[in-house]
Amino acid sequence: MADRVRELIAPASANIEEKKMFGGLCFMVDDKMCVGVKADNIMLRIDPALTDAALEEESCMPMVHGGKIMPGFVYVDNSALRTKKQLEHWVNRALAYNKVATPSKKKTAATPKKKAAATKKK
Description:
Layout: H1 2-9, E1 16-21, E2 24-29, E3 32-37, E4 41-45, H2 51-55, E5 60-65, E6 68-77, H3 84-98, H4 112-121
Antiparallel strand pairs: 1-2, 2-3, 3-4, 4-6, 5-6
Helix pairs in contact: 1-3
């Protein structure tokens, strides 16, 4: 599945990174999470306003994190992704939203001043 997704995502951007996340492989496009591949499904970041409509489609499930449904993130079972057309349908939705999605905030290392304050508290 990762090879199939890689082939579809490659033309989208010159800035594609693959990271191991969520027990699978996540494709970051332009520094934004786009598609994740696991053994039995894919995770997609789509337009949050379209989550409910997506969940009505075959083999689409909500992403639940910490007991809460994550708007804009869905899982699609691999059984619904057998053909190139089926996979393209979902990957293209993720790529369309990726163009307007905001990147997640990058964690920054603590500044020396913050490190010193943390050390004093101990």
